[in-house]
Amino acid sequence: WNHKYPHIGVPGPQIDFLGEMLRWWDHWLKGIDRGVDQDPAYRAYLMNSARPEVSFKHRAGRWVGLNQPKGSGVRFWAFNGENLADVAGPVSRSVRTDVSCGLNAGEYFPFGFGPGELPDDQSTDDAKSMCFDGQVLVEDLEIVGAARIALSLASDQSRAQVALRLCDLRPDGTSALIAHGFLNLRHRNGHDRALDMPLGEIVEIEVVLDQVAYRIPRGHRLRVALSPSYFPFVWPDDKAVCLRLEAGSLQLPVMEGEDVAVAFDSAKGATGIEFKRYSSRLENKQVLRDGDVWRQEIIGDDGLIENPLTGLKTAQKVHEVFEITKGDPSSARAKFVWKRSYGRGDWMVHTKSHVVMSSSNGQFLVEAKLDAFDGERCVFSKKWSQSVAKL
Question: What's the rounded Cα separation, in Å, for the pair 154 and 200?
Answer without folding.
Answer: 5
